[in-house]
Design goal:
With 217 residues, this protein is of the alpha/beta class. 36% of the residues lie in helices and 24% in strands. It contains seven helices and nine strands, in the order αβαβαββαβαβαβαββ.
């Protein structure tokens, strides 16, 4: 079964590596699942899936794509990343192309939420935004000059005018959405603090692809 979703080579490669680590056909958490872009691959591998997202509109699209009468092995719930409250329910969890919209203050709590959601030895695959260092520095200095209370890595200097243009023209542009690009070493530190050990990291032009595992207690 194929669902016709276009997934680029790097995402597909690391998703397959993640599935290889999860191994058994157990439950997987698809966090910030949106319209279910990656969930078909999880089900094709034989897993049951719980997809969560804070957008009711995107979840409605996901339910149209995966109607429950045809796909009883997947269910969708309106839960934001900061609202996760699972306890050792999943063999694996994914969070792809979403953490770049999370402010640095929320990263540690969300990663702890993934830790708590995973069974001991469970695996996590997440992506972290990767931007050119000069772009990040320029955005940081511009935001400081504007008096914005930013931390290094936040791309916030163009959000308000870009959002206004999007409202006026109806065209959504990347700059109209908040981004945070943490240094990879910072992500490593946060994962370790959350009790998640990094297994593998790869990078393309847009993302760090990170696979980690919950330590067996």
């Amino acid at each position: 079964m194929r669902f016709g979703i276009d997934i680029d080579e790097m995402h597909s490669e690391y998703l397959q590596k993640f599935l290889g680590l999860v191994g058994q056909r157990g439950p997987i958490l698809s966090a910030a699942c949106g319209a279910g872009r990656f969930d078909g691959m999880l089900m094709e591998a034989g897993h049951s899936v719980v997809g969560i997202d804070q957008s009711a509109g995107l979840l409605a699209r996901a339910r149209v794509q995966f109607p429950p009468e045809q796909f009883p092995q997947i269910r969708f719930e309106k839960i934001g990343l900061q609202e996760m409250d699972f306890h050792e329910e999943f063999d694996g969890a994914i969070c792809m192309d979403a953490m770049e919209h999370i402010c640095p203050e929320d990263w540690t709590g969300i990663l702890r939420g993934f830790h708590d959601a995973l069974k001991p030895g469970g695996s996590l695959y997440l992506t972290a935004d990767m931007r050119d260092a000069a772009e990040v520095e320029a955005a940081y200095q511009h935001a400081l000059a504007m008096g914005l209370p930013v931390v290094y890595g936040e791309i916030a200097d163009e959000v308000e005018p870009a959002y206004q243009r999007a409202l006026e023209t109806g065209e959504t542009v990347d700059q109209s959405v908040y981004h945070y690009s943490p240094p990879l070493e910072q992500v490593r530190t946060w994962l370790e603090q959350a009790g998640l050990a990094i297994v593998e990291v790869g990078s393309d032009n847009e993302y760090h692809h990170i696979i980690a595992r919950k330590r067996k207690e």
